[in-house]
Amino acid sequence: MPTNRFHAAAALVEEAVEKKGVPGAVLVILHKGEVAHRQCWGYAGLRPEKRPLTCETLFDLASLTKPIATGSALALLLEEGKVTLDDPMERYLPAFAARPGITVRHLATHCAGIPAGGAYANRNVTLSEIVEEIARSRKMAEIGTKFIYSDYSAISLGALVERVTGQRLDLFCRERVFAPLGMNDTTYRPGVRLAPRCASTAAGDDTPGSRGWVHDPTASSLQHTGCVSGNAGLFSNGDDLARYAQLMLRRGKGLLRPETVQLMTTPQSPLSGPDGQRGVLWDIGSAYAIRGEFLEGSYGHTGFTGTSIWIVPQAATAVILLTNAVHSSNITPKNAVIALRRELSTQVWHSIQ
């Protein structure tokens, strides 16, 4: 439902698809308690033939998995008192005895001094194996002294959730987060019902066999052994993410306490300055933030495949952008989406003034 109010914002996305090579995109804007704009452009797949995209198309969320799946699961455990941010990780994952001093907080704010990730393309590993590798990984900085955005951090926290709950992360999220919110099209490993509706992220052809398979190589290596990852692997669409954004704008009503949402979305890092502007797996104002001219106190995240969400509680607004930019055959669309995110935030802010 295109609207005149957000026409200029939508035009930015349309230009990215029509002129900058982004294969397909969905834009959903929430404002004052309702979906104020919902529109789609382009294609779910380009090769060997063009496959139409709709507003119901599912996208590989990539690193949006971190706050929406892993972060939400962790929020429930924090609220229930089963975990605290300053708990040592070795309390839950014995492998972390090799890295004493690392806490849940350090991982949740990306300052544990561990690497960004590892080389997992064409490897199949279990979650326990990768946790062991993370615990033995190279020391990149002293704990709590440097911001290093890390897939390893979210993978470790996903493993913590599994250890505490006794459930695989995707099953816990389905039962405790997605089903209660009516997010029926949000899942890891889309099955036969949902995979045909997934936008392609394949570097090659868009084939039935590639649809619904996670793009991230680490998450892919885990899925090959029947595991899921806390850093990537979640699939969803604009409508379900709008349901999630509404939850956050309503300060968790129906799922979380307001103080839990506040904890998750305000700075929790021991660092100061922009590097410390990280909540519990949410970005608030780091170098990765796409806030544009939105107010301080807003928060969100981005995903490598071309996805993003930014939530502005003070303005009762959220902006959801889903693209399959990585399905393009060159780098230009990927760079276009990086710039588009901040431009979109700024234009939406101007539109609601």
Describe the structure in your own words.
By secondary structure, the chain is an alpha+beta fold. The protein folds into 2 domains: 7-64 and 169-351, 3-Layer(aba) Sandwich (Beta-lactamase), CATH 3.40.710; 68-165, no CATH class. 33% of the residues lie in helices and 13% in strands. The protein is built from 10 helices and 9 strands. It has helices at 7-18, 65-79, 104-108, 127-135, 151-165, 169-181, 217-223, 238-249, 258-264, 332-351, and strands spanning 24-31, 34-45, 51-52, 59-60, 187-188, 234-236, 299-303, 307-312, 317-323. The strands form 2 sheets. The chain has a 6-stranded antiparallel β-sheet with strand order 3-2-1-9-8-7, with helices on both faces. A 3-stranded antiparallel β-sheet has the order 4-6-5. A hairpin with a 4-residue loop joins strand 8 (307-312) and strand 9. Helix 1 packs antiparallel against helix 10 (332-351), helix 2 packs parallel to helix 5 and helix 2 packs across helix 6. It is globular.
What's the gist of this structure?
With 353 residues, this protein is an alpha+beta fold.
